Amino acid sequence: MVNERGKFQFAIDRGGTFTDVFARCPDGRIRVLKLLSEDPQHYEDAPTEGIRRILKEESPQAINEDDKIDESYIESIRMGTTVATNALLERKGERMVFVTNKGFKDILLIGNQARPNIFDLNIRRPELLYEEVVEVDCRVIPALENVCELGALSKKWRIAIGQTGQTFYVTQELDLNKVAFELLKIRQTGIDSIAIALAHSYSFAEHELAIGDIAHSIGFSQVSLSHVVMPMMRLVPRAFTACSDAYLTPHVKRYLEGFAKGFDNSLLNTRVLFMKSDGGLTAMSEFNGSKAVLSGPAGGVVGYAKTTWKKETNLPVIGFDMGGTSTDVSRYAGNYEHVYESTTAGITIQAPQLDVNTVAAGGGSMLFYRSGLFVVGPESAGANPGPACYQKGGPLTVTDANLALGRLLPEYFPKIFGPKENESLDKDITLSKFGDMVFDMEVPRKVEEIAMGFIRVANEAMCRPIRALTQARGYDTAGHALACFGGAGGQHACAIARSLGMSTVFIHKYAGILSAYGIALADVVYELQEPTLKLYEPANFDYFDTKLKELEKKCLKALRLQGYNSNRIVFERYLHMRYDGTDCALMCSPQSSTNNATQHGDFMATFVERYQTEFGFKIDCDVVVDDIMVKVIGKTSICEEVELPESENTPPVHEKTTKVYFEGGYKETKVFLLSKLMRNNKIEGPAIIMDNLSTILVEPACTATITKYGDIKIMIGTGKMKEISEELDSIQLSIFSHRFMSIAEQMGRILQRTAKSTNIKERLDFSCALFGPDGGLVSNAPHIPVHLGSMQEAVQYQLKTRTDIKEGDVILSNHPAAGGSHLPDFTVITPVFHESTKNPIFFVASRGHHADIGGITPGSMPPHSTSLDQEGAAFKSFIIVKKGTFQETEFTKEILKAGGRNLQDNLSDLRAQVAANQKGIQLVKELIGQYGLKVVQAYMKHIQSNAELSVRDMLRNAAKDARRQCRDVEAEEFMDDGTIIKLKVKLDGETGSAICDFTGSGLEVWGNCNAPRAITLSAIIYCLRCMIGHDVPLNQGCLTPVEIIVPKGSILDPSEGAAVVGGNVLTSQRIVDVVLKAFQVCAASQGCMNNITFGNERWGNYETVAGGSGAGPNWNGVSGVHTHMTNTRITDIELLELRYPIYVMKFKIREGSGGAGRYRGGDGVERELMFRTPVTLSVLTERRVLQPYGLKGGQPGARGVNTLKRANGRMINLGSKTAINVQPGDIFEILTPGGGGYGVPGSKTIKIEDLPITKSYVERGSLYTFKLNQESV
């Protein structure tokens, strides 16, 4: 941002709490300002007020008599704003209507059918954006001419060619008059904004355009067409994106109009640019809702990228932005890292966004002491009431902990706190609240020890996602520099860098307003994107080159209209590429090449390199180009910063000395003002460096140096490690909890990167875990419910049956009798030895779902199996690695003998599991190197004991409830075939223990609904965690207070040869029903996963279908969602119809299927599929005979129904479980069960607003997406 015309230039970041202003004056001086984003008593708009205040001091004549700003003094205004984000979070956008195809009115309510938090019985789905839905009776499907066999029916349909060159059948033409009638009714209600998203409109946009024209003619002022907003495949995320655009854009435009009114000519003659989510600026007239969600945080990424990379360090950089209400992390290594689909506040948006990961609640993270653990967040005090020290009745937070330790100095803060916002931070309130916390602790502690403990736990909690962010892409975390900014980050930077093994921290002089400064440095970006869906092959190179040139011309024209000439314009070209048959697409730029490449360069080389780096291998198959994108960048001229004078070896002068608490006690700490420091000044820690916008703590053994431009570079020393004993320390327990979980998470990242199959790499159907020397589970990630207890059983089986566990050996197991859940889940177990120990000191294991391991049907999940050998290869204890050598020949023999169809994927995934285990071993050995073996093993036991404590507390409360209600804790439920599952629980309120006795449950069945014992353990752990109601370590300790009795030979512990595939996906759900019924927790959910498989000898598809969740004591059930032991996402309609000869005719809520009650059960769904070629349809379901129960007088949910409608009109009830051959034109309809109601219908309900609500930070970014994907397996 170079001042060329002698006028003021402003760059502004309007954040959630504060608005930061960076101004360059006509004489080149810099002014910075921070003010509250909301202060209605003093000003209407914070950015306008910031500009006004600076102009008032610098050029008073720039403020007119009517208090408007004379914009002739201003050359440019650049702004990032959370206006769109806040409207999305608070659901305060425009009233709008959503238009989609008939049969899909609930498509966004159902979404991908996964629930947000797998352990919440009270499922909270974010509110939808639209107020009304209009279904239009029009439809297109991919023609698939070579496989479609509908014959006469398809000949009636019009053939159309889409933008991508695809051929479509128009199965239903659009009735324009009917659409106009429906939209007019909506417009007359006052709704003025409309989003239109039709299936396959990314390519065939004819119907969307026609409806858009009608909407404009009727008078809708905002019309968002999904193929225009974001022309990418997949209906659900594209429709969400169109809705977000229709919902947010009018809101953003109103804000912009209000902002412009503060200036005398409404900014008509001033260059105003807004920051988009992708890190580029755009003209105010082009700024829209769907590209504005990360407008503010994007500035910070640009800021640290342009001030750190290749300037202060050659290392790749981790951005660490810790503010008052959120903590964001990101990475930069020469190029901005983008994601092209992300979820914010429950809304999935397809748009280029910088990969900014919100991982914690910042300085406002609330502090709890719970069940012997120090817990930080995720709840946040927010900006109001804020931390306790703000004097507004707020809770203890990380900010309070820093204040209590002397790391924040109230005298350097503005007096903006207290009820009248005219007081300083109040340390006395903070110390008093920490003093009250002492009484909750078993071991008395000083206030400073408690505060220090919370800081250490908070730091470790923030280190976990930074490790994940780097290692997910194959990078070494320690090989990065940490760029720290935000108001709260400077107090934590040294400790976090040291924990991560980083040697360098960089803190810019404008770190407190780095987002605003980044906006000043940002470039103007204009991009266009089009779908292609063509193979990357020489025959299509001319097409790609032509399309790229067309988009270049359009982008160039747009940028030249903004005044950019050719020497300041840079082009970036991208192809969105993926291996055929996979879902993971990468946006790739070209490398220079003269051989076998497009005129623009070799995109394939970039794709292969990136895929290899990110996933560890390449695939020998075709590569598909989904989309083409061109970015044109108008480069910003950056003014050279003024260099500081040399210090000439003069030591820096400190302002005062204060006492700051570190490990080991208080230390005398010098306080410096950044404004008085000179170039090359060196400051040895401990020290505090203050500027007007942030507080920087230089910890002991660290050295800060002032750079030539006045920034701070800190070299991190090793420091002296605090000695940790084997005795339980609750602070150290919390830290070890994070470290153990981080080990399991990092194992999972290695497994995902190096595996080959879609199941592991993209569906993320795996778990990794750490076990103690007795095989007891210590940590497990992710928390896939069906894996929770069963992996422990698998490890302990090896200990019971093997006396020859040797170093260098790795064991493969999947047999139900050996702790397996079902055969496709291969568990790879590695024993770990230490130095000269004879026995393993711990175990690591990884469990992954292999797509095919033999058996009578492809996919190894036959719906009609009656014995285990029909389901594939079974291994109780197979040495897959012997003395360090992978036993490929022996494994190949076994898998082929069982009929395996995908040997190479099996081998690749097994090698990946072995590699993941090796990573776990390395990480635990690092932990042992840091703390010693005895300490690590002691804390393995302590963390298990802590989980036990939480379960005992819950069981004591359950015993009290049962006594108060004078009832036995018991229940029984029947499977659809009449088999009983019976449970009687004997609770001991004194010890907090329970005996769960399943005696009386039915015999194993002639079929595959038998559940291995490990499944019962997993179901019980899942129920215990749900009933506890907050995060606890999920490990062996959860089951220590619980004795489980399961009769041998029953459906819950069948004989070794019994078929079990249905037990994993059906009976597991019914076990949960019985447990929750016994404890009277909530009504039954749908009690089923609704497993549907269809295909032939060439292809197959497997899906599970959502239903209704059960109501509870103060909540209604949720409709169209997966519950309990599954959380599987469903394939998007467009992908399904493109890949397979299937026509999805309906996918909507089954209204009225939830049970009535004081709180109503959630409804199931209706789904109709027309088959376009002969296939075998397999159905494996439950709750088709017996309804999901209601509780406390609530009515049961509706039972499910499976119906086949033959093309000749014949209707067939398929029952719960069957396999049947279907013909072209046949339609399968599934009606899934609803959830049960809770309480007598018509009785008084508790209003939701009457219940206590705590705020939490809103997660986002690639790490959050990864977590959602893992928890939806």
Quick recap:
With 1273 residues, the protein is of the alpha+beta class.
Structure commentary:
The protein is of the alpha+beta class and 1273 residues long. It has 26 helices and 55 strands. Strands 20-15-14-23-24-35-34-31 form an 8-stranded mixed sheet, with helices on both faces. The longest helix is centred in the C-terminal third of the chain and has 32 residues, at 933-964. It starts with 7 loop residues before the first strand and ends with a helix. Residues 1247-1254 have low confidence and may be disordered. Residues 10-218 form the Hydantoinase/oxoprolinase N-terminal domain. This is 5-oxoprolinase. InterPro entries: ACX-like_C, Hydant_A_N, Hydantoinase_A, Hydantoinase_B, Oxoprolinase-like. Belongs to the oxoprolinase family. Residues 238-527 form the Hydantoinase A/oxoprolinase domain.
Highlighted features:
1273 residues, alpha+beta, seven-stranded antiparallel β-sheet, Hydantoinase_B, Hydant_A_N, 5-oxoprolinase, Oxoprolinase-like
